[in-house]
Amino acid sequence: MNIVTKETAINREYQKNIDFSVTHSAGSFGYSRTNFSFKVTKTNLRISTFISSAFARNNFKYKYTLSDSVEWKERENNQKLSGDFNLRINHQNKYLNWKYNLLFRNFHKGLPGPINSLNMNDKARLDGKTARNFLELSKKIKSVFLNSDFYFFNETTRFENTESSLPYYNIIGNTKYEKKGGKLTADYGIKEFFDSQSGIEFRREDFEYECETSQTASIAPVFLQDSAIFTAFNFYQKLYPFRFEEDFSVRFDHPFRSDEVQFNDFLSWKTEGYAEFQGLISIRIGGGIGNSFSLPSFYDLYWKGDSNAVGNPYLKPEIGQNKYAFLHFVSSNNDVKIEFLRNKIEDLIYWHRSVNSWKPDNIAAAEISNLIFSGEINPFFFWKTGWQINLTKALDKTLNEDGSASNTFNRPLIYTPDKKIVAFTSFSLNDFYLKISYTKIGKQRTSRYNDNKMLAAYELVDTQFAFEKKLGNFDMKFYIQLNNVFDEHYEIYLLSPRPGFNWKTGISLETKL
């Protein structure tokens, strides 16, 4: 159960109060979680803390299909342990508004690896600490709103696989990762006609890896940084019963790496708009076109923190050409939307399973089309139901150097399902709440070259029941969640099984002092 606090509007003074809550949850496979939350609100100052401790053995049963007959085995060395501390401070006055957020986490993960190579990862584990710092400053000067965001993220991990029955995989590795940056924006607008946002952004990521068991496998300190300037314009006009809106944005990125590989500067842009008829049933039709630029993540490039995955420093950025169109119907609390998206991408980054581990590479060219049907209807005040159907056609468009079709041309991309359906229905009456969710994921290819390596489609049904009750000065909330009700056994990655039926239950007490 998550405790979510509502943000107060900037120009509203906080009421004076103190909130305290405690939550405990338990569930399948040794799952246990305890949360404490404490919040003090006075005038224009809010201070809140959140402390959490969680553990799960994750020792679920799975079908082992690699033998001549189907066997049932227990997932071992799959335990997870984490401790979290979160501090938030929010202060508002007529001179400056600022927010600070600190999230500290200490974690331990068992890493069993795929079921065809369990002896490679005997008792392998990853231990680490993360600290995330965020600071937001904002100020309105006449008709200009200034906002700045700063962040600093630090993570250290230690991977140990010293008990593998295969000596080659006995590894101890230490990773240090830092990410820091900031963004400054200025918003200006003319009421009912025009607004704009312009700004600058900078980020830097540093990485270092020390392999205690093989110094030649270590990675000396490296860094990647990106500087950018951007601007966006929004024009809108209302001629009842019609409304028109047009957006245009442009961004220039200048990346730099400290190693021998460099990325080129890139100019990206996007324009989009819509026309809306406002009535008993509002109808909005629109679309957009543009290009995109996406740098590989730092972990894509350099990750070497465990034996299950390794980065690729020679990855290229993704460059895309994007188009989309939509038709949206809205009536009261009901809406239905149809969207079509098509992206042509050069150097698409994808992760695949190599001989010993997962690694990323580039696909020279790919084309991804999505047809999405979504909506939400409220037949009665206590009943809500919604859905999203995503039909995907994702094809490899790689050509040979002479322009002829490669042996992967027009084959579906790996780990991209051809369909994804998500639907729910929920009932909320007085203090009771019931939600039933349904998910269907279509079949997925797992190899660019072998058509027979497929992940089967699967369907999941989840339910959640909750109720609230007042007990003196306390508000009590209780819930029970049943996941994968029909005990579907499935994989989201090849030879990496997921749990069957599982459950969680929890109770929380909250009071105001």
From the structure above, extract its key features:
single chain; 513 residues; mainly beta; 22-stranded antiparallel beta barrel; two-stranded antiparallel sheet; 1 helix; 28 strands; 66% strand; globular; disordered N terminus
List the helices and strands and how they pair.
Layout: E1 17-27, E2 31-42, E3 45-56, E4 61-64, E5 71-74, E6 80-91, E7 97-110, E8 125-141, E9 144-161, E10 171-190, E11 194-211, E12 219-239, E13 242-257, E14 266-277, E15 282-294, H1 298-302, E16 318-331, E17 334-353, E18 358-380, E19 383-396, E20 419-429, E21 432-441, E22 444-445, E23 454-455, E24 458-471, E25 474-483, E26 491-493, E27 496-497, E28 502-512
Antiparallel strand pairs: 1-2, 1-28, 2-3, 3-6, 4-5, 6-7, 7-8, 8-9, 9-10, 10-11, 11-12, 12-13, 13-14, 14-15, 15-16, 16-17, 17-18, 18-19, 19-20, 20-21, 21-24, 22-23, 24-25, 25-28, 26-27
Describe it for me?
The protein is mainly β. Among the domains are: 23-68 and 82-108, no CATH class; 381-513. It has one helix at 298-302, and strands spanning 17-27, 31-42, 45-56, 61-64, 71-74, 80-91, 97-110, 125-141, 144-161, 171-190, 194-211, 219-239, 242-257, 266-277, 282-294, 318-331, 334-353, 358-380, 383-396, 419-429, 432-441, 444-445, 454-455, 458-471, 474-483, 491-493, 496-497, 502-512. The strands form 4 sheets. The protein has a 22-stranded antiparallel β-barrel. Strands 4-5 form a two-stranded antiparallel ribbon. Strands 22-23 form a two-stranded antiparallel ribbon. 11% of the residues are buried.
